[in-house]
Design goal:
Elements lengths: L2 H6 L18 H18 L6 H8 L3 H7 L3 H11 L13 H16 L2 H13 L3 H28 L9 H18 L6 H15 L2 H6 L10
Helix pairs in contact: 2-3, 2-5, 3-4, 5-8, 6-8, 6-9, 6-10, 7-8, 8-9, 9-10
Length: 223
C-alpha cells in the first residue's frame, strides 16, 4: 500500500489548516513550500530544520512563510495533511464499533508508512517544544479524536455500548496502545495486536448483544 493510501486510512478524516486572511497565496508556491518541508523533515528532522532552510529550498522568502504559517511544525503538519486523500464519512448503516475497529487498523497501517514515520519526529519534538506540541494536538490529534468521539457517541446512543461509557477514556484505551507500541518499539505493532486491544476494550464497554455479535462471548482476550 502506498504512503498516500495508508495515510488516507488514518484515524479520522483530515481537515485542512485554517487559512489566514489577506492576499491569496500562490498554490504553486505553497506546494513548493510543503514539498520542501517534507524533504527537510526526512533529511534533518524537525529540530534541525529551520524556516530559513524551508524558504531557501522552496525558492521563496522567510517573510512569505511567516505570512502563511506561524511555526515550522505547522508547515510540516500542513504538508502531511496535503497528502491525505479526501474520504467519505462512515455510512450511518455501519456499526460504530466496527467503524472504530476499522479506524484502528487504518491507523496501524498509517504508522508503518512513510508519513507515519515522519510524524514520529513531530511527536518527539512536541514533548520538548510547547509550540510544536500545541500545533500537533490542534491540527493533527484534535480532528481525528473528534471524529472517533462521534462514533463512540453513536454507539452509546444506539445501545451498542453501555450508557456509562466514557468517550475520552475509551478513545485513549483504543488508540493509545497503538501509539505506545509504535513510539516505544518494545513489541511489534501489528494487526493481531490491534484486534486484541479492540476486543479487550469491547469486553469492558459493549453490551451483551454487541459482544455476542462480535463473537466475544465465551472467548478470552487474545484467543
Amino acid at each position: 500500500m502506498s504512503a498516500r493510501r495508508a495515510l488516507a486510512g488514518a484515524l479520522a478524516a483530515a481537515q485542512p489548516l485554517p487559512r489566514p486572511t489577506g492576499r491569496p497565496r500562490s498554490e504553486e508556491c505553497r506546494q513548493r513550500i510543503l514539498a520542501a518541508a517534507r524533504d527537510l523533515l526526512e533529511e534533518r528532522g524537525l529540530r534541525a530544520m529551520t524556516m530559513e532552510a524551508i524558504a531557501e529550498r522552496a525558492g521563496t522568502s522567510k517573510v512569505t512563510l511567516y505570512r502563511w504559517w506561524p511555526h515550522k511544525a505547522v508547515i510540516v503538519l500542513d504538508a502531511m495533511l496535503a497528502e491525505v486523500s479526501p474520504r467519505s464519512p462512515h455510512r450511518e448503516s455501519t456499526s460504530p464499533v466496527e467503524a472504530l475497529h476499522t479506524e484502528m487498523k487504518s491507523l496501524c497501517r498509517f504508522l508503518h508508512g512513510r508519513v507515519g514515520r515522519l510524524l514520529v519526529g513531530v511527536v518527539a519534538e512536541g514533548a520538548l517544544d510547547p509550540e510544536v506540541g500545541a500545533a500537533y494536538r490542534e491540527h493533527w490529534v484534535k480532528p481525528r479524536r473528534d471524529a472517533a468521539r462521534l462514533l463512540i457517541e453513536r454507539a452509546i446512543q444506539d445501545g451498542t455500548v453501555k450508557p456509562e461509557t466514557d468517550p475520552e477514556v475509551t478513545l485513549d484505551a483504543l488508540f493509545g496502545p497503538l501509539y505506545y507500541r509504535f513510539l516505544i518499539g518494545h513489541l511489534s505493532l501489528n494487526m493481531a495486536f490491534v484486534d486484541s486491544v479492540f476486543e479487550s476494550v469491547m469486553r469492558g464497554i459493549a453490551t451483551p448483544r454487541t459482544r455476542a455479535k462480535l463473537g466475544l462471548v465465551g472467548r478470552r482476550s487474545g484467543e
